[in-house]
Amino acid sequence: MYLFGLSILIFALNKLYIRSWTLENNLPDFLLIVTYSIPNLIEAIIVTLISTGILLQVRQHFNKKLGTIKTAHINLIASSSAAVYVISQELKFHNLGGNNIYDPYDLLASFIGLIGTFGIIRIFGFTEETEIDISD
């Protein structure tokens, strides 16, 4: 939840303020590359989080048939499907995300977002565990 909100905030700030500020102030090329690659990083994070949430909901909804699928497998499937979408878009296999220009730094940012989000989900989990009091 925090990662999703922070990602959206950074994306908006980058689009509205940071990009224009970096261009106006003649900052080093490294910072320009980071500024222009942030949307790809954010896209990888958001697509991975949304894919994970959808697959967890599908597993819960079809509990009798899909309830035995482990959360680790759900995370891997979601991250893999997000990777296929994000990377295939960067390599111009499709143009579902809009007008896209190939840039190796964007591809690197996408990989960092995909791997980082997968790692965060595996370490911290996707949802908060709640205890159910069965004594009621």
What kind of sheet is the major sheet? none
Q: What does the overall shape look like?
A: elongated
Number of separate strands? 0
Give the helices and strands as they follow along the chain: HHHHH
Whole-number tally of structural domains: 1
Beta content comes to under 5%
Q: Helix segment count? A: 5
The percent of residues in helical segments reads: over 70%
Distance between the termini: 30 Å
Structural class: mainly alpha
The radius of gyration is 18 Å
Instruction: Name the poorly predicted regions.
Output: 130-136
Describe the protein.
This protein has helices at residues 2-24, 29-61, 63-66, 71-90, 104-124. The protein has 136 residues and is mostly helical. It has one domain. Helix 2 packs across helix 4, helix 2 crosses helix 5 and helix 4 (71-90) packs antiparallel against helix 5. The radius of gyration is 18 Å and the shape is elongated.
